[in-house]
Amino acid sequence: MLSILRSLVQEVNGARDLQEALDIIVSRVQNAMGTEVCSVYLLDPASNRYILMATEGLYREAVGQVSLAYSEGLIGLVGSREEPINLEDAPSHPRYRYFPETGEERFRSFLGVPIIHHRRVLGVLVVQQRESSRCFDEGEEAFLVTVSAQLAGVIAHSEATGAISGLSLTGEEAKDVCFSGVPGAPGVAIGQGVVVYPSADLDVVPEKQTDDIDYELAQFGKAVTAVREDIERVASRLAAQLRPEEQALFEVYLRMLGDNALPGEVVNRIREGLWAPGALKQVVQQYIRHFEMMDDHYLRERAVDIRDLGRRLLAHLQEGEQKDVNYPERTVLVSEELTPAMLGEVPKGQLVGLVSVRGSSNSHVAILARAMGVPTVMGLVDIPVNQLDGKELVVDGFDGQIFASPSADLRAVYQEICDEEDELVKGLEALRDKPCETTDGHRVSLLVNTGLMTDVVRSLSHGAEGIGLYRTEVPFMIKDRFPSEQEQREYYREQLEAFAPNPVTMRTLDIGGDKALTYFPIQEENPFLGWRGIRVTLDHPEIFLVQVRAMLKASEGLNNLQIMLPMISNISEVEESLHLIYRVYHEVREEGYEIHMPKVGVMVEVPAAVYQVRELADRVDFLSVGSNDLTQYLLAVDRNNPRVAQLYHSYHPAVLQALVRIAHDAHAVGKPVSICGELAGDPGGAALLMAMGYDALSMNAASLPKVKSVIRSISRSWAIQLLEDVLLLDSPHVIKSCVDLSLRNAGFGRYLRPGRSAAAIAEQAV
Fold first, then answer.
1. Is 367 a residue whose pLDDT tops 80?
2. Which of 93, 96, 377, 639 has CA atoms 20 to 30 A from the CA of 601?
């Protein structure tokens, strides 16, 4: 059964559209189970009715014509109960609904299983038998459930592809197609989708049409010639080292590149109007499916050769193609997985929104997007990203939704929200030079998180009082090697000078986990529990010592440097780090640099540190909570995994209790404590943190004016009462709602979400 299932999934994955996928499913399942009928009913989101979309065994004329209400018949019963229903005599069941146009009166045995994807019922998969035939046994039921679970994601993806193309399940025009992910950076953007993808990755190539077929044919011809020459050159170079049977492998490649083989089929698809990379993708994936379905092991392995050949051809096609990406005036950048480098390719002032299939609200691209003030939606796992190229998109970074090809009404409503947000930002500019102080005189420092020099102007214009977290790994990530001491010193000096005399807290190199260096790869099965942060730099003191030396020399004459140690989980790590820092300090002084010993602090971001705050504070000058990682570790949730992104919640009771404890224990031994996670940039979160006693809040620059406005308008006693109220609650969602309601009642609803909810917007637009 496993081989049958594998072949089925591969075939369905290669289907061009939803209908082809469904036809493959019913045909293969009917054959595999030896049943007389196999059908698929899909739930149409527009009408909330189950529609017969494909069948083997019932009358084909009924496809697309027969539909049932959400709770109607046995199909509706399977969907509403969300579990299999296996009946020996279906017509005798009280929920049985007879449709003469299907011809199903001949069949009595019934087995239906729901098709569920991410808790959403997509439809029902059904097999049926005549009265005289066997009943469906437990093994058959288990097989059908397995098929349904395996194919749910494929069906969801195909359904989304059709919707983006403008068609609903019924073939009617689809309007304002909405996809939900997770909010990455707040705000609303309206612009044109530009899909970017890694080089030589066939899976993410958009399937675009072309108006210049001759150009595409010429480019593909050049790629074929170049790959053929590459293979001949390699074969010639290795000829003396290989036996004849091994040399024959190169002949296989060259035969595949013959005009009547793979290139011929690609050429045919280009002539049908597809651009060359898209045509190549279709043909290569078709070849791979055929080979992988073969029983012969040797032939199955040839799929690897086809995939390699496809990548080689694509690499040549892309040599000039990526450089010619056209970024419109209002670009919404779309990718399977956005990277900081992709953001940097868009001309200044033209990037208005970001959409990423992978990642969550706390991935580093999302954090960078918030710093840049670019509305972002992450974790759109069901979206056919390649279909968004060139489409007009609305990016709702507040609710974590995007709309493809919006109607004029929907666009107008969202444009109104954009205008409201612009007005709000302008209104907050007057607060830049005013202190962040509550109405009853409690003072809180507002700092910024940064890693780029481009953030400095924005940070200063928004009234930042210093840097609470300078991510020193950014200079390391933009190089193809470790930066020298002098290069690091120049980076650090820029930041220190820009904010002098205000403090700049520099975190020592924090790589590992979700931050990788291409020239220093760390391959681990569980990177978040592995070699990262201070663990890496203490194992490589040559990296740590050079970095600290560069920081100290950069601070000469300014003396506003503070050093922070990441991922501390025990006292020995602090003591070893301090020993190295003091050693460098004395060496730099001996070299003639007039510097002061900077304050040194630790980050509290793993649960072990929460319970050692007093011991840690005895050895350092300050503590700073990294609430993003602390939340991740407390809740055992990978913040970059969209499948569990909804479980990551900064307002979780366990997180709030931990934050209260940290602030209390730090102050008990007389040490200041700050927080530099994303919770600090949320107006409601900032109010709670201020009530807990945090001395400084560090956030992205875009959030600072809103946080300052809220804190200046409330009393600390009001915030303390709110904190006491929410600490009695046991649900993160209820806590967030309670905080939002309190802010709205206090007149700050406009800071939480300008305009209306997405549901209200869609309803109004319709």
1. no
2. 639
